[in-house]
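Morning F.,

Quick status update on the modeling queue. The single chain you submitted on Monday has been processed. Sequence for confirmation:
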Amino acid sequence: MALIPMKEILDAAEDGKYGVPALNINEMLQLQAYLNAAFELRSPVILQASMGSRQFTGWLSKGNPNANLGAAVTMGMIKTFLEQYRCEYGYDVPVSITLDHGPNFEECKGAIDNGFPSVMIDGSIDYSRKNEKGKNPARSLEENIRVTREVVEYAHARGVSVEGELGTLGGIEDETAAETVHLTDPDEVERFVKETDCDALAVAIGTSHGAYKFPGEVKLALELVPVIHARAGNARLVMHGSSSVPADLVAMVDEFPVIRLLGGTLSINGLFNPAMEKPETRQYKISDPSEMARLGADLASFSCLKKSSGVPMEHIQAAIKSGVRKINVDTDGRIGTTGAIRKFMAENPGEFDQRKYFNAARAALYKMAVEKIKGFGSVGKA
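Structure tokens below.
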């Protein structure tokens, strides 16, 4: 089985009433971890490449990153590993890749022309404009429909699935942030799906991108999901910003902060109390007992990451029960990778073989993918 359009995976999930993890990839470690988890558990999986990912994989030493080169490289990497895993495991699993948060028609076209079987066009915000705070304004419903329909017409003519978005999310996706957060209006869903003919619909129910989703209590408008599901027709529902930001991964990052020791001065950068909004660097002379005492006091409430919480698994499972079929996860992979590498290097300070700390990161990514596949109910659905 080749890479397939996302619609095929989501239609099967709708029939079986389960969720499918959509896992963002930027490099080989993530791809290996996620494909191994999918094959081992015989689960369908959707891989995602954002614009930032395409630029990362399309790096050129002689000039600016080439996103279309990144798309081609990503496709080649996936196809190579997928074919080898099929031979190794002796069976197949459904795999798709989609462009995550395509900002406009041209970028979606670039992904399609380079072989992506699925794309997401985010017509909910205007990526070409920013306000004085650097945030992107929301588009009107009519403009969102126009932008999305343009991509759908090009994609469907080539057998490619399209995901649209109705409503806007908080947080930051790559370097993009919505000016305002708008929950999906159920009264707009039927019109949007009918006029765009999109295959999947990303809904805004209170989730957000990044690690800092909920500064306090988790609040999601889960009551909107069954209403939207009933009005979405054949468009399958998608939750973006659905990383759980597990406490154990955050704790691992905090346990192994980056410390610099130079000329008898120790420097540490981070958040020294829960009220701090931005990290700062503090320095301490190791020969001065009073400064070492100050270090001890400062570290009593130190953290690397601002305290926050993600979307608990039980909330995601409730959304799946009500009709969500695709669940996007990116941040958990980033935090797990960072924590695993920091932990390995702290415990093995003399080790400089990158394969060894990359292996620790890959193991953390695999563990995360297994947890998502099991939690979303897609085990054995291949």
